[in-house]
Design brief:
This protein has 140 residues and is mainly α. The protein has five helices and no strands. The longest helix has 45 residues. The protein starts with a helix and ends with a helix. One of its GO terms (molecular function) is peptidyl-prolyl cis-trans isomerase activity.
């Protein structure tokens, strides 16, 4: 379980690092916190830990929002409970159940994304045909 968690955390951390400029672009417009961040943390390690947690939280929140666009709505409270349980080494699922569930979920997300892409393509094709028909009628 710990090796799976470490791999998942590492992958998520890497994803956060790779997507940080995109993920946080919307957050750049938000006003900065008014509290002095130096006062909130005893040392740089606490500040770094908090920053990693905030970054991870934003990434997960953005992921949930993107999944909702595909018609998939995960329970944010259960996601947070899963993270807390993993840190406490008290997972409600076995490693095998976690792996199987994540594989099934990944397939579901891919399927939903494919369906949305096909629908969008069909919608765009219909718009192009309508526009072409109108253009031809105007020329005639």
């Amino acid at each position: 379980m710990k090796s799976l968690f470490k791999a998942t955390l590492l992958a998520t951390t890497m994803a956060v690092a790779m997507h940080a400029p995109i993920t946080f672009a919307a957050d750049a417009a938000k006003p900065a916190a008014t509290a002095d961040s130096k006062a909130a943390f005893k040392n740089d390690d606490q500040k770094a830990a908090y920053a990693l947690g905030a970054s991870l939280g934003r990434y997960m929140d953005n992921s949930l929002k993107e999944q909702e666009k595909l018609g998939i709505k995960l329970d944010k409270d259960q996601l947070i409970a899963g993270v807390q349980d993993a840190f406490a080494d008290k997972s409600k699922l076995s490693d095998q159940e976690i792996e199987q569930t994540l594989q099934t979920f990944e397939a579901r997300v891919k399927s939903a994304a494919q369906a949305k892409m096909e629908k969008d393509a069909a919608d765009n094709e219909a718009k192009v045909k309508r526009s072409a028909t109108l253009l031809l009628k105007r020329k005639a």
